[in-house]
């Protein structure tokens, strides 16, 4: 086990170096705390590092490989660690290539983040459209019966349309909550968030419920020059606890039974929910894909993703119930072309993260920041499937992208050279009475 622990430590060291390198030349909170490799590091820790700890313990707790003997499960750990190191090194090379080519440069004067007057009309319309989308998703979900899984909502064309519309509400909620909070309109911010959560609750979509609050919090923090690490860790732990409790809450609500919530409140239950079930199961999924290696490699995975092939091979009964587990980004690359493709994909993915880092270092408009914040969970969520994540990325960023390009066109038509106002802390925000809608 000494080798396995050394490989685990090597991943931590490599990831630490990557994160430190990503902050070279950073001038504001977005470039330091919110850069792409920071998100990558967070998701890598949740999906691969923490589950790896349990895989290294006696008994080799790897979900999905319970049918193997303990020695066989142990044999799956070290190769998976090596493939993860290949993944990390390749991502680092791709990111460093862009960064050293000039991606580390920031615009002159970009010591603070873009912050503009609140666009009430645009945000209000998007919020109403998004809440309508969530309402219709809830109606579709309830019509499918109590045993249906939430993924069944998007099996129909109408369900996909409603789901796409709901993303407008997610953006509008994050945007309004952040702006209202920074303008000291705290009760209004809570009201917007509570309204959104009420409509989203009936779809059982845990991530969709939580992300607007996370993105609003990030926008607020990124306006500040410094955020204490302890504060970030406390919020992260709180978010994980909420995530662990949401499924029992959904089940208790449907069955009108509070016992499930009481059982889920224990620390052991929360830990089990997060890492011993199908929440953060990246290491287990990658170990299963690479160790048993029963899925024939095929470049068609690049068109439709690897989830269906993965589930049909290892969990056909569960797939028949409408439930599917993600392959992870490196796992999907392995299915497409084994180790050579894992290396190539990982390097290109690192280039993508480097380009995103260059994008936020050159952000002049607030709309660019929101495009990034709405899209980065899907681009950095390496425990999910890469190809399906692109569809969610398009839906999540559609509203801020339209805002970004329309503002460019409008400024070009006016020939304006005005730069957006910037703030560095909550204390510098104008009072709400003096704010004007654009």
Outline of this structure?
The chain is mainly α and 438 residues long.
What features would you highlight for this structure?
single chain, 438 residues, mainly alpha, two-stranded antiparallel sheet, 18 helices, 2 strands, 71% helix
Explain what this protein looks like in three dimensions:
- With 438 residues, this protein is mainly α.
- Helix content is 71%, strand content 1%.
- It is built from 18 helices and 2 strands.
- A two-stranded antiparallel ribbon has the order 1-2.
- Helix 5 packs parallel to helix 7.
- The longest helix has 34 residues, at 70-103.
- It is globular and about 65 Å long.
- The termini are far apart.
- The model is unreliable at 421-438 (pLDDT under 50).
Strand-helix topology:
Blueprint: H1 2-22, H2 29-32, H3 36-56, H4 70-103, E1 113-114, H5 120-143, H6 157-182, H7 186-201, H8 206-222, H9 229-255, H10 259-264, H11 267-275, H12 282-292, H13 301-304, H14 307-314, H15 316-320, H16 329-361, H17 366-380, H18 386-414, E2 422-423
Antiparallel strand pairs: 1-2
Helix pairs in contact: 1-3, 1-4, 4-12, 4-16, 5-6, 5-7, 6-7, 6-8, 6-18, 7-8, 9-11, 12-16, 16-17, 17-18
């Amino acid at each position: 086990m000494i080798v396995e622990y050394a490989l685990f430590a090597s991943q931590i060291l490599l990831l630490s170096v990557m994160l430190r390198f990503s902050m070279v030349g950073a001038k504001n909170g977005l470039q330091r705390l919110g850069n792409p490799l920071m998100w990558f590091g967070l998701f890598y820790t949740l999906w691969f590092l923490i589950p790896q700890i349990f895989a290294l313990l006696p008994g080799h707790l790897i979900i999905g490989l319970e049918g193997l003997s303990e020695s066989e499960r142990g044999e799956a750990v070290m190769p998976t660690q090596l493939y993860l190191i290949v993944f990390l090194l390749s991502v680092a090379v791709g990111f460093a290539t862009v960064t050293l080519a000039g991606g580390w440069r920031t615009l002159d004067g970009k010591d603070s983040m873009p912050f503009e007057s609140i666009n009430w009309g645009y945000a209000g319309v998007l919020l109403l459209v998004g809440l309508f989308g969530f309402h219709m998703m809830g109606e579709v979900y309830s019509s499918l019966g109590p045993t249906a899984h939430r993924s069944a909502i998007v099996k129909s064309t109408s369900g996909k349309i409603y789901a796409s519309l709901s993303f407008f509400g997610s953006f509008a909620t994050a945007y309004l909550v952040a702006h209202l909070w920074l303008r000291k309109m705290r009760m209004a911010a809570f009201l917007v968030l509570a309204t959104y959560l009420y409509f989203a609750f009936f779809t059982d979509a845990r991530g969709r419920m939580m992300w607007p609050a996370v993105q609003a919090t990030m926008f607020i923090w990124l306006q500040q020059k410094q955020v204490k690490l302890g504060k970030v860790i406390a919020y992260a732990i709180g978010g994980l606890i909420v995530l662990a409790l949401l499924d029992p809450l959904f089940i208790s609500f449907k069955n009108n039974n509070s016992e499930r919530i009481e059982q889920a409140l224990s620390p052991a239950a929360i830990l089990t929910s997060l890492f011993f079930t199908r929440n953060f199961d990246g290491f287990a999924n990658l170990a299963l894909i690479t160790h048993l290696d029963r899925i024939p490699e095929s470049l068609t995975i690049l068109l439709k993703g690897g989830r269906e092939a993965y589930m049909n091979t290892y969990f056909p009964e569960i797939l028949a119930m409408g439930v599917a587990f993600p392959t992870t980004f490196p796992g999907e690359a392995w299915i497409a072309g084994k180790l050579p493709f894992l290396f190539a994909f990982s390097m290109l993915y690192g280039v993508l993260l480097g380009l995103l880092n260059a994008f936020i270092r050159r952000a002049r408009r607030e709309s660019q920041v929101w495009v990034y914040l709405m899209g980065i969970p899907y681009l950095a969520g390496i425990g999910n499937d890469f190809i399906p994540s692109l569809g969610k990325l398009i839906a999540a960023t559609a509203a801020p992208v339209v805002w970004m390009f329309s503002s460019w066109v409008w400024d070009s038509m006016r020939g304006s050279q005005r730069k957006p106002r910037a703030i560095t802390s909550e204390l510098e925000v104008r009072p709400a009475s003096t704010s004007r809608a654009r």
